[in-house]
Amino acid sequence: MTVYSFYIFDRHAECIYKRRWLPRPASIVGKSSRNESPAQSGPAGTGQTMRATDDDSKLVFGTVFSLRNMVRKLGGDEDNFVSFNTSQYKLHYYETPTNIKFVMLTDTKSPSMRIALQQIYINLYVEYVVKNPLSPAEHPGGVGVNNELFEESLEQFVQTRVLS
Amino acid sequence: MAAPPRHSAMLSVSNAAATPQSGSSDKSQTPQQPSTPQPTQGLRVPSNRKTIYDRHLNRSRNAELSRASFAYLFAEMVTYAQRRVTGIQDLEKRLNEQGYPLGLRLLDLLFYRTTTTSSSALSSSSTSSSPPNRPLRILTLLHLIHGPLWRLLFGRSADALEHSVSPDTPNEYMITDNDPLVNTYISVPREMNQLNCAAFVAGIIEGVCDGCGFEAKVSAHNQPTEMWPSRTVFLLGFGESVMEREKVLERAGIK
Amino acid sequence: MPSSTRTVFSLIIINKAGGLIYQREYQAGLRSLSTNDYLVLAGTFHGVHAITRSITPKLPLAQTSPAITSPGGNAPVGFTYPNPGVPASGLEHLETEKFRLTCFQTLTGTKFLLFTDPMTGNVDTIMNKIYELYADYVMKNPFYQLEMPVRCEAFDRHLGAWLRGRT
């Protein structure tokens, strides 16, 4: 299984975290956050994909937001949109009761990542971001999410998923 | 010129026609040369010269046609007939007129095929065992339409043949088709529910009747049933002259 | 539960401009919306479908061969799609807890949206049959105007009968 990218959107529809992986194992190239983010990092070679990535996150949000509303309209308020796939990728979606949205793009053959996204939320996001006394309550521009513990454990989490 | 040898290699039969042309042609025609021999191998003129026109009429008797291509063609015919019509009756009249000449021509083919292949198919209508005559009485004509004509057109007989029960209209006959081929893919809009596109087939029938010397008006009517939603009744009304002649023939004992 | 394994809730057909041209419900299970809501849904889905294709991950090619550019791409550097042999498509299947949405787009841009039970198998077969019936009873109907709402009684009849026959 290959993971292409991962996004977190907060309840203000803002992308507070995103990360892209390349198919070659253990190499992170497209790692970036919003332009104004102080925690912006990544090798110099990724500048070219920066803008495209930024637009992508808005498109991804628009997509999941529209689909979520459509699904609720048809399936009722308690229905949830789980995933969709195209010929090229599969998008997994998980929404917390507090309206934080976790989105992951993987290859088409991947199994359901619903549990995995939930684990990321419970074991990583809550543990390292919410419980971090230094991180603010809201994360405009991704402040506070880009902390080392969260990023590293996310990296590890995805790596084990890829290998398994 | 380098072109002719390549052509002769490509074409087997038609190069006989292509080579003299290229030899006699002047310079202005040479740019067209590569493209002109191409169509000779196309659908219209196959290389073995066996076009649909060269085929023996009896040979294509059992040849099958694509139902889809017919459906598209017929859909275009209906669309064409729909242009500049004033109403449903006008549209049915146009469809009828499209079918009429077809009926006239089909009759010849029908007779030709029944004489050469099986003398038994129409032997009931003929006085001798050899070539069948054209039908003289209404009933033989109706049987010709119900059976051989329907089989020629649709591969099966029509489903029912009735005479009008009303004493006022002894000249009316009904031929029923439970599922007319022409209407297979057609859904008539609700606001035109009187329309039946089988008016085209009615035109064919009219042509066949006229070709046999039976003046008649033929129309198609919807008579849907639960099982056959597109059931169609073709109403044949023969002219007075035909009915008079019929009486004379009956007295004379001609069948 | 054999009945739920082949449940087809409803079918929507969207023309190439994103307009709703057909909507029928076959079995209860989803909320029914007003005609206006269905029109909005068709338009929304049409847009989302296009976006889902555009957010296809583009994998940069190796730096040693920067000259190669994938066909159809507008990115300045060479990239490839995850499944290189397959053209990038929009949303094809969508799964929720209650239903499964299958979208089939014809080469001419018409979209068929089929809502089924998540357990329903052989959705592709159903979709093929629907496409076949559409080609027969809609496209061959002289009274059907292209891109306009489908009002073909024969299409309704055959599709309904076929879907009923399956269950």
Automatic annotation (TrEMBL), chain A:
Q: Which domain of life is it from?
A: Eukaryota
Question: What Pfam families does UniProt report for this protein, alphabetically?
Answer: Sybindin
Q: Where is the composition biased (Polar residues)?
A: 30-40
The alphabetized UniProt keywords are:
Endoplasmic reticulum, ER-Golgi transport, Golgi apparatus, Transport
Record SMART domains:
Sybindin
What the entry lists under InterPro entries is as follows: Longin-like_dom_sf, TRAPPC
GO cellular component terms listed in the entry, alphabetical order: endoplasmic reticulum; Golgi apparatus; TRAPP complex
Enumerate the subcellular locations listed in this protein's record, separating them with semicolons.
Endoplasmic reticulum; Golgi apparatus, cis-Golgi network
Q: Assign the protein's first listed, main location to one coarse class.
A: endoplasmic reticulum
Keyword NADP part of the UniProt annotation: no
State the Gene Ontology BP annotations. Answer: endoplasmic reticulum to Golgi vesicle-mediated transport
UniProt keyword Transport, yes or no: yes
Q: Where is this region: Disordered?
A: 29-52
Quaternary state and partners of this protein? Answer: Part of the multisubunit transport protein particle (TRAPP) complex.
Which PANTHER family does the entry mention? TRAFFICKING PROTEIN PARTICLE COMPLEX SUBUNIT (PTHR23249), TRAFFICKING PROTEIN PARTICLE COMPLEX SUBUNIT 1 (PTHR23249:SF16)
Stated family: Belongs to the TRAPP small subunits family. BET5 subfamily.
Q: What's the protein name? A: Trafficking protein particle complex subunit
Q: Which organism is it from?
A: Penicillium cataractarum
UniProtKB/TrEMBL annotation, chain B:
- What InterPro entries does the entry give? NO_sig/Golgi_transp_ligand-bd, TRAPP-I_su5, TRAPP_component
Instruction: Tell me any Pfam family this protein matches.
Output: TRAPP
Q: Name one GO biological process term.
A: endoplasmic reticulum to Golgi vesicle-mediated transport
Region ranges (Disordered): 1-47
Q: What is its main location?
A: endoplasmic reticulum
Polar residues bias: start-end ranges: 11-27
Q: Where is the composition biased (Low complexity)?
A: 28-41
Q: Report keywords, A-Z.
A: Endoplasmic reticulum, ER-Golgi transport, Golgi apparatus, Transport
- What is any one of the record's Gene Ontology cellular component terms? TRAPPII protein complex
Q: State the compartments where it is located.
A: Endoplasmic reticulum; Golgi apparatus, cis-Golgi network
Q: How does it assemble?
A: Part of the multisubunit TRAPP (transport protein particle) complex.
Q: What does this protein do?
A: Plays a key role in the late stages of endoplasmic reticulum to Golgi traffic.
Q: Which family does it belong to?
A: Belongs to the TRAPP small subunits family. BET3 subfamily.
Its recorded name reads Trafficking protein particle complex subunit
TrEMBL record, chain C:
Q: Which Pfam families match?
A: Sybindin
Q: What is its main location?
A: endoplasmic reticulum
Has keyword Transport? Answer: yes
The family database entries (InterPro entries) matched by this protein are listed as: Longin-like_dom_sf, TRAPPC
SMART domains from the entry?
Answer: Sybindin
Where in or outside the cell it occurs: the entry states: Endoplasmic reticulum; Golgi apparatus, cis-Golgi network; Golgi apparatus
GO cellular component, alphabetical, reads: endoplasmic reticulum; Golgi apparatus; TRAPP complex
Specify whether ATP-binding is a keyword of the entry: no
Tell me which UniProt keywords the record has, alphabetically. Endoplasmic reticulum, ER-Golgi transport, Golgi apparatus, Transport
Biological process (GO), any one? endoplasmic reticulum to Golgi vesicle-mediated transport
UniProt lists the family membership as follows: Belongs to the TRAPP small subunits family. TRAPPC4 subfamily.
- Subunit comment for this entry? Part of the multisubunit transport protein particle (TRAPP) complex.
- UniProt-recorded name of the protein: Trafficking protein particle complex subunit
Query: Which species is this UniProt entry from?
Result: Penicillium cataractarum
The opening ranks of the lineage are: Eukaryota, Fungi, Dikarya, Ascomycota, Pezizomycotina
